[in-house]
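Feature request disguised as a bug report, sorry. It would help if multi-protein outputs had a clear separator. Right now it looks like this:
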Amino acid sequence: MRAFQIVIDRRSTHSASRMFSNLRGVLDVLVDGTNVTARIGQDHAIPLLRDLAYAAADLAIHRHTRATVRFYDQRDAWALGLERVDNDVLVTVFQAGEHPHVVVQERRVLGISLLRGIMNAIESVLDQEKDKTEPLFRDLDAARRFLESLRWQTSSRSIEIVDVVVEAQSDAAVSFSTEFSLRVYDDEPVLDNVERNELHSLLFTGPFHVRIGDVRRDFGNVHPFLIAECLLREAVMVLQAWESGSAFNHRRQVSDILIGIRLTTQGILSLTLGGASSAGFHGTLTFPSISVVSFVEATLAFSRGLVRPLLRHDRSQRSNLRMRVFREDVRSLSTALREVVRQDAKLNRSPESYRAFAASVATRPASNHSWGHGRLRFHANWQAAVPGVDLQSVFLFGDRLVAAGSRELASIDKQSGRILWRVPIERGVSVAAPHGIVRLSPRGFMHFHDLTTGEISMVVRLAARNGGLPAGAIVNVPGLPRLLIVSEGEKHITAVDYVSGEVRWRHTLGRGRSIKVRRAGKLLVVTSSDQTLTALDVSTGETVWRVRDKLRFTRPVSYDRNDLFAVSGDGALVQSGIEKLHAFDPWTGETKWIQCLDAGIRSMGAPLTTDELVVVALHHRRGLGLCAFDRNDGEPRWRLEPGFAPTISAWLLVDDLIAINCENGMMLGLDWRTGTIRWRHTTESPPDGDAPRNLDPVLRSGALFLPQRNVIVVRPTDGERLGEVEADLVPDLIRVDDACNVVVVEESGHVAAFSAGARLTLIKN
């Protein structure tokens, strides 16, 4: 007789809840006198008995074939899996969570014994309890009455046993294989509108075979699905470490098998496998010098080989959350591997037209040193309030200021502050176009607002945007079509003609996450935080050239005349990051040179380009740093160690110096040829919470405008102060026109305009 019994130990425990005055101690589940559970704390005893009663009732009346009852011990989450086979029930006990552990595998018990054992346990609890008015006891009593009203129904179902073989790849250097049996229930109901985490249905057993080269290792009965989950997680981490050139060392035990992975910085992978015993691991075997790609491909093949028969023979797996996550991980790893091994790099063999077009464009203009020894004075013109102002959607168009709030887009006369027009808008971001404002909504609508009236002149429907700001560029150059190029959805770059409103072309990217766009003449250079740097033809959207690297291109690129500079990295934290600076020919895609940056330091923003150097800003916990490389061959020229300025800073290249504006009130002018500080100013540090949101310096008519507590105006060459805009606002954003008139915008929605007064000049005798 296969007996099922629940024993309650009524000894006092420290974790006892006060409401259980009579039920003291813990609960154990026994099959044929063998304890098959961990000792269950009394806090969970009553709910377990209740859930076990209803689960057994479902099995008894053929409502379900499988049921899972979850419970807790003092530390971990556990589950009791019940599966009906003929008139018996198979009892499985396992620890749930990310790293499951099976302690009892399909212990067989008679169905009527299951009902009898649960009923006896419930009656024992209720007989000892004097006050049955507590909600849990009333719930338990209802479960007892329901269990008394039914009988174990004899089964007439025919259970089909399917033998599944996951074969090894005969021509692969690494392969995993297994075979197991599945019980198929054709009439098992499937809940189409409910997804549940059902690990119990995936705990089938079978032998596991590993073949690497000519060596084969066979393991006894294990849980193939748990092995596949573990291999999949390891493969993801191995591939990420291999891409970044990092070392990786990890060991994990799953289903009585030790799996050890070791990857060196040279990309050499070793795999250790072994069986477990109570005294430790024995019979381990290490396979050295395995190809990372072969290991990942073998893991994917083994995982797919498991998924296909499970979905084919068990319809309920389509609504199993555990299976869904597993399949998504398989697809994600497959995409990542395909991107890593893809050999689709392309060079442009006909760069003449692109080079000639860029040569016809004017070179970088020099700043106008028109201020000499003069001074600037500013007069307040007007103040206004724009509720919910979007700092990224405030623009100057000649004699008017256009600002977007939370509900309205408004145009304001720059001199008088008079509102010229305002129109209602929905949530989105604004882009300044030559003849108006373009609003991009998260739903995918693109509205063109006329600059004169604010009315919508065109509407274009694109794919919805899933969070984040769109990337793009405005093309308004003679000889090129007038285009607004934006990121669409997750993986597309789309060009819209802002005159006709038609979509001219749409380019599909690889994985496409954080998309960044930079125009270089007739080319559009696109990065999407993957291993690809792509140059598209602005007019057609066709790929002109493509570069691949093991590291990801995560930073904006810099284009200057006949050079293109980009930084690739592993995207890791500052303490472990690895990055490289690349110099490319922008017209062919050929690599000119590559320079490795210091490990543990992360770059910031796009590289700065001068006539002789390329300068990279560095982020470190100590603060901001700079390193300069020769533009022609990449050799290091000078370096400023991190810490000379705060990390939260903004910089601008002006003639022969780099102007840096810092959050702590410090302003610097660096000579970019030598890295020496030419001038330095320190103002009173803004109070906490009053630091400007945007510290970017603005250069107008030879004067440099620096947002601090007030807007400080200096001459770039020597740092001499030319004036100060004293506003009662935090200059979270400043806009300056060519006449040095200033608009100050605070994030609270307050806007103030100032006009530059008569210029004062010092006359020396």
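(second protein starts here, but nothing in the output says so)
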Amino acid sequence: MDYSLFDFLTLIGSLGLFLFGMKMMSEALQKVAGSKMRSILSAMTSNRFFGVLTGFLVTTIIQSSSATTVMVVSFVNAGLMSLVESIGVIMGANIGTTVTGWMITLLGFKVKISAYALPMIGLGLPLIFSKNSSRRSWGEFLVGFALLFLGLEYLKGSVPDIKGSPEVLSFVENWTGMGFGSTLIFLAIGALLTVVIQSSSATMALTFVMCHQGWIEFPLAAAMVMGENIGTTITANIAAAVGNVSAKRAARVHLLFNLLGVVWMLIVFTPFVGAIEQFVTKSNGVSPLESTAAIPTALSIFHTSFNVINVLLFIWFVPLFNKIVIKMVPSSEVEEEEFRLKFITTGMLSTSELSIMQARKEVHWFGKHSHKMFGFVRKILNQNKDSKFSKQYARIEKYENICDDIEVEIANYLSQVNQGKLSDLGRKRVRSMLKLVDDLESIGDCNFNLAKTINRMRNANIKFDDEILKKLELMFNLVDASLEVMISNLDDGNEDIHMTKARQLEDEINNYRNQLKVEHLDNLKNGVYAYEAGIIFNDLFSECEKLADYAINVTEALAEVNPQ
């Protein structure tokens, strides 16, 4: 057979066109329905049936169960949903991914939709250049939809001609006549392809093409579909590898659920496939075992029925799944001050809107981290024991280094998000977060500067009287209150920015700083404390006021893009 490198590259390019079309269509749908998707996910409850419906809807929209499960892992990692809630969503995602099969079955093979692809691109292209973001997104959807089926058409034409190529046919025949062994081999091929391509939808398209070309028969294609269900779990487990314990558990649930589904299906595989074959033969009058034209319908029925039955079987065992994965992935007692991001460890989410929400969660945690650091500073001011002081001072220094690293990581992540397709409001939010992570890092610097000043005071054996300590305590209390308002405003679920309260506290801190400055000069003049002690006192309340400035900067940055 004359199958050159050029032909192979054409095959790869066809698959690339299919994936690009799928991605473009998916991203356009996400932008059109981004806020609705966010509403669906934020309304998540512990009702497992609602979770299944949510997983189905999200996967239907973004056309990738892998993306949905990675998203779910991220949300569990971020504390946006519980492990029990995530199980229902994962189950629903498996049903949602069957929509791709039906789309190809109903449109890709029976209707020559590629003939309409260029006119669809002609329709969508003017919309892409529209200033209206909604019309632009619909234009991208039309172009993506057209490219998807153009890719599918090219894919059908670029695979090797198996029937006219005995040498390739013999290669496949080595694996097709081994009974149950062939089923396991093609199950493994389906899993491996999905892991490599990172899209069960694309693997499903390839399976359809292989059947359409007469490469493999219906039962082996059904085995590949089962393999795809296993392969799609790998993505989420890779994502969870750097996540927290809850994220790892959610990924294990997906793997366990799909593995158990494949196990029971393998037990009843022959009669089940036989029943699908009989049903399609009675409905269409053509057997999928005799005609390749009937295979896509039979395969879509198999895929859907397998996943629906799987969910109906296991949805009653959600609490049991929860207990099993908790035992499989026990929580570690040592999980404290290591540098690691808490919420964006799983990488970019499929939807830009959700990526921004994920980053906002990380920024919220960064704010809490800075506030916690300020608490450590307050402790060392009143710490008398040298050993405890040294330990707490080292802890503050470690937190300051973590703040530096977190700022870089969040900024890098936001830069990646900014390169994606975002609405104008989305871009404003990204700019706002880039500014406020810089302010949060500056809060960390201020905390460390306060700690260094207290360390200087300790090394110089300077001790303030109770009156001076009370004044410092009052300043610390005001700054603490300012940080608490900042944390409340950073909370992703809190859309009501407390601007008035934040500005009121800022004014109080500024006025109190001015008052202390005047008193400081009087104290120096009257010899209440030595000049060196006065410098320390001045540095402490001035640094506190500076820290509060960064706290109000964060609130102001949030207020600029707060949705009304």
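Even a blank line would do. Unrelated, but nice: Residues 3 and 160 are 7 Å apart (CA to CA).
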